[in-house]
Amino acid sequence: MTRLYLLRHGSTKSNRDGRYMSRSEEGLSGDGRWEVRQLAQRLSSSELAAVYSSPLQRAKETAQIIAQPHRLNIAISPDFNELDLSRWAGLTATEIAARDPKAWDIWCNDPMNLSISGIESFVELQHRIRRGLDQVSASHPEGNVAVTTHDGIVRIAVLLALGIPLDHYRAVTVSNAGMTILDIDSARTYLRAYNDTGHLKDVLSVRTGPADR
Question: Do the beta carbons of residue 168 and residue 111 sit within 8 Å?
Fold first, then answer.
């Protein structure tokens, strides 16, 4: 059985500002690096066999921190890349709603049926995520594997694992540096943990000093 640790990247300035990054490049903020260090410490005894990452900088930085205690190289997988929302990259929800109201309304209320230039369709999205999950589990049928990726990718992976229609995309959320665990075998996929951020809550109260955002 493959144990898959799906890890959302640490925080960025755009996350803090509420801006859609899409596939634009942006590194982790000081807060984000701190979050991922806590996550890496938690995973340090997990005996990871491999670490995969989205091609984007924020995910690769996260993967490097996660992989270091295990002395592993990072494998880049485009299947775990961010949802392509290039039409709205750099904008806040308020700005998008003002500039692109019809598309925004569909995105908020019926994302499965949004078909518009500059927005990746959910049909395409679920196909590549399923392909990525199948590839990882086939390559590591008995190992522990970490994948550093993005909010939307983890959401879809959870829905696929549970057999829940993608219409329920809005019903799940994923925190920065949140950990979701899937156990995958030849028959089915089991959800063992969802958006676990215990590694952050345990130490937030003792954290001191300003963050380099």
Answer: no
Q: Give CA–CA dist 55/212, Å, rounded.
A: 24
| Domain 2-204 CATH (choose: 3.40.50.12780, 3.90.550.10, 3.40.50.1240, 3.30.200.20) | 3.40.50.1240
Please tell me the distance from the alpha carbon of residue 15 to that of residue 33, in angstroms, as a whole number.
13
C-alpha distances out from residue 126 to 107, 150, 200, Å: 16, 14, 30
For the cut 50, the answer to whether the pLDDT of residue 212 exceeds it is no
pLDDT digits (tens, 9 = 90+) for 136-180: 999 999 999 999 999 999 999 999 999 999 989 989 999 999 999
- The SS3 assignment for 93 reads helix
pTM of the predicted protein model: 0.91
